């Protein structure tokens, strides 16, 4: 994994590769302690994703690959940059079902520092099930709506928006859940 510097409330993604026979099992450690997936911190095979970074996430992260032949560790540092001069969260997020694969998401600009927003990121994931991968789309600051059109039919999805400015990211907006139509 490569060391990263990220703003508070941003997202960090670490990737790790290992090969062996038998195929190694991958796990992640933070400052030497095993990490467990929770709402903000997720592990997908060889990836570690930390959403909505908080100051306590500033740490050394280690990827461990282990099989019956032994284990190996590789490490990277996450440095969290603090910035008080950031926008408030986008507000009044609402979703509207367009079809079996598309949902229109709309929101209002942040109340605070909205003139400094350079981009928005739209985050979405399936609402049901465990360890659903979170997808992210980054869009320009000139719009406050976006159509996500690669969704599965008859499924619930949860969405939230983050505003970005040069110094860092806002908090997440309120989450909204919406259902796609049957095919």
Description:
By secondary structure, the chain is mainly beta. The protein is flat. It contains no helices and 16 strands. The N and C termini lie far apart (41 Å). The protein has strands spanning 4-7, 12-15, 25-30, 33-34, 41-44, 47-50, 59-67, 70-81, 91-97, 103-108, 119-126, 135-140, 145-148, 156-165, 168-169, 176-179. A five-stranded mixed sheet has the order 1-8-7-3-4, with no helix packed on it. Strands 11, 12, 14, 15 and 16 form a five-stranded antiparallel sheet that branches. Helices cover 0% and strands 50% of the residues. A hairpin with a 5-residue loop joins strand 9 (91-97) and strand 10 (103-108).
Structural class: mainly beta
Overall geometric form: flat
**How many strand segments?**
16
Q: Low-confidence segments, ≥5 residues, pLDDT <50? A: none
The end-to-end distance, rounded to whole angstroms, is 41 Å
The share of residues in helices is under 10%
Relative strand content:
over 45%
Mean pLDDT value = 88
In sequence order, what are the helices and strands, one letter per element?
Answer: EEEEEEEEEEEEEEEE
Radius of gyration, taken over Cα atoms and rounded to an integer in Å: 18 Å
What composes the largest sheet?
5 strands, mixed
Q: What is the count of helical runs?
A: 0
Strand order of the largest sheet: 1-8-7-3-4
Keywords, separated by commas or semicolons:
183 residues, mainly beta, 16 strands, 50% strand
């Amino acid at each position: 994994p490569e060391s990263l510097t990220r703003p508070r409330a941003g997202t960090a993604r670490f990737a790790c590769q290992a090969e062996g026979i038998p195929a190694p099992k991958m796990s992640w450690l933070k400052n030497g302690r095993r990490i467990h997936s929770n709402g903000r911190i997720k592990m997908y095979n060889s990836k570690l994703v930390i959403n909505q970074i908080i100051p306590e996430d500033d740490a050394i992260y280690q990827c461990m690959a282990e099989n019956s032949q032994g284990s190996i560790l590789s490490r990277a540092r996450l440095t969290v940059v603090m910035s008080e001069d950031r926008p408030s969260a986008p507000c009044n997020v609402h979703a509207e079902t367009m079809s079996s694969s598309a949902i229109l998401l709309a929101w209002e600009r942040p109340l605070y520092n909205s003139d400094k927003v350079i981009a928005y990121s739209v985050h979405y994931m399936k609402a049901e099930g465990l360890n659903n991968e979170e997808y992210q789309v980054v869009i320009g600051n000139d719009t406050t709506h976006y159509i996500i059109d690669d969704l599965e039919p008859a499924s619930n999805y949860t969405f939230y928006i983050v505003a970005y400015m040069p110094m860092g990211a806002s908090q997440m907006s309120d989450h909204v859940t919406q259902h796609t139509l049957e095919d």
